[in-house]
Amino acid sequence: RPPQRSRGTPKQAKPQRINSRAQNATQLKEFCDKALDGYSKKKYVCKLLFIFLLGHDIDFGHMEAVNLLSSNRYTEKQIGYLFISVLVNSNSELIRLINNAIKNDLASRNPTFMGLALHCIASVGSREMAEAFAGEIPKVLVAGYVDTMDSVKQSAALCLLRLYRTSPDLVPMGDWTSRVVHLLNDQHLGVVTAATSLITTLAQKNPEEFKTSVSLAVSRLSRIVTSASTDLQDYTYYFVPAPWLSVKLLRLLQCYPPPDPAVRGRLTECLETILNKAQEPPKSKKVQHSNAKNAVLFEAISLIIHHDRCVGCLWRGFVSRGAGAAGLRLSPTLGRSALLSWLG
Amino acid sequence: MIQAILVFNNHGKPRLVRFYQRFPEEIQQQIVRETFHLVLKRDDNICNFLEGGSLIGGSDYKLIYRHYATLYFVFCVDSSESELGILDLIQVFVETLDKCFENVCELDLIFHMDKVHYILQEVVMGGMVLETNMNEIVAQIEAQNRLEKSEDQVLG
Which residues form the AP complex mu/sigma subunit domain (chain B) (predicted)? Predict the structure, then answer.
């Protein structure tokens, strides 16, 4: 449904929100001086963010935002972290204070606070953050806390991935790698998705460490692809079961050569199922359904081509069938040239 | 990895700007303007993927966008992301906004900017896709709202 303009809110309301810089300076003075209540602090920080969005420099308010980080109130912490993530600052004094606040929140064992801290580290992702936290995050990820929430595991996996991307030298391999592979078996598909993203990137530089992920990935993929549409419920998107996760698992498999026969048999079944489903009449007229279905299909074809290059003519049959299936009913959002270059 | 998420209206006014790579502020605004010009020229029935401008990354990066009435949602991604997956992710994000704001419109994005950021934070973290399941995202947002209400009551 396209968004509509809401009635009744006058357009004049908008200019009032955009204060002049002089007004901001006075407001900021209030911000610093008075002991403002939570609502006012939030309001001021929001205004600063909005002004920044429109393109004006904000060189004040940073210290106040950092102070908000140590508040015990969730809403204040949240807005403090938001401000910091959006207006990343290279002032070293502040970075030390920010890192301290993050350290406290990570150690707090409060999943909401840990989530906020992890999010901030991932959003900023600077080298200083990597230096401070790259050693800690794997512990958070695989720690045996009985009460480590799924959301914390998800966030920690992606946070680690982000730090690895910016500073790979600061993330050492260790015991935790085998535990991360095990996350592929987690019940929560969100955790599995995050773990798959992490493993895919790490496996490119350290394939030996993550070899065991191949068979786990294949069994996970086959469970998803053969599931009835009622099984995965929440993760089913317009009648396609867990399309993002399927695509990621297929990408992970492209980091390795074709697996040994036992696993390969299962993988072949999976790929056949995907190709067959692509040729069935669509379950929905919506473009989302065909996009999701095609996303999985193209990634499957990509994997087949990758194996084909490794092994030779065994998979030719698949490739031509895949091409046929992909030729069906291109939605307008796909350029034909994009598809042709994909099949290359 | 997602480099940036931009939402702007048909006149190029930014409504949500989130960068996952460090750019100085003037460059950020320049990127928004450049992206707007690239995207404005496209008809509604043309492919939703295009090469990014020169400022943001170069040839490895693509812009994936969707146009909803008055707003453009643009995700700038590198080759490690599936384009169709991102296209659907934009849809998930918009549907979630719709659920949280009830018939979302551009003014909601203006007046509740922090809320929009929090919703986005449940979907994308540090440039990585965190969650694609809309029910899960909405549940997290509702939990945040409850936490907010309980704090207001306890501490006044």
Answer: 1-147
